[in-house]
Amino acid sequence: MSADREHEKAQIFDFHTKNIITKSDLCNFNDIVDWSNPSQLSIAIIGDFTYGTGNLITAVRLRKIMKDIGYKCFNYNLNIFHHLSENTEAYNDEINKLELFLINNRISFIMGIHLWRAGRIITSINNKNSIYFPYILVCAGTDANVFVKVNI
Fold first, then answer.
1. How big is the CA angle at 131 (ends 67 and 72), to the nearest 5 degrees?
2. How confident is the model at residue 93 (pLDDT cuts 50, 70, 90)?
3. How would you class 105 by CB atoms within 10 Å of its CB: exposed for 0-12, middle for 13-18, buried for 19 or more?
4. 20 to 30 A Cα–Cα from 97, which one of 110, 126, 143, 150?
5. How many domains does the chain have?
6. Bridge partner residues of 111 (DSSP)
7. What is the pLDDT at residue 128?
8. Which tens digit of pLDDT belongs to each residue from 30-62?
9. Plot region of 42 (φ>0 → left; ψ -120 to 50 → alpha; else → beta)
10. At 142, which CATH number?
């Protein structure tokens, strides 16, 4: 994590411990959905896709790979959530819009890019209803790229 985002570390750990790890099942990637028939699967790649960021570049590359394999694949930009408090009507309206997008496009699986930003949105949707969307969280952008500058 880059120094200017260090404050997110405690938030990420606390959030994922309370909301994801303890309320989710850890499973094999291949067991999440039936991957044998790509044309039957719709995948949503969600994240804060600000122009020029590593998250956007990762999303574009993942979408191309998934589409080349034969999956229906959509990118959904979460940047509106970055400016909203989780306790506002506007936040809940955006959660409802995303949920409708997932339902209307018959999304089988979500790839969330960025542990904190995508992870909390996916958890909000999955905790909201009886509908559960299988997902994976991808480390990208500063989540992953800061290690290029640091000797581990």
1. 10
2. very high
3. middle
4. 143
5. 1
6. 45, 136
7. 80
8. 666 666 777 788 999 999 888 877 788 888 988
9. beta
10. 3.40.50
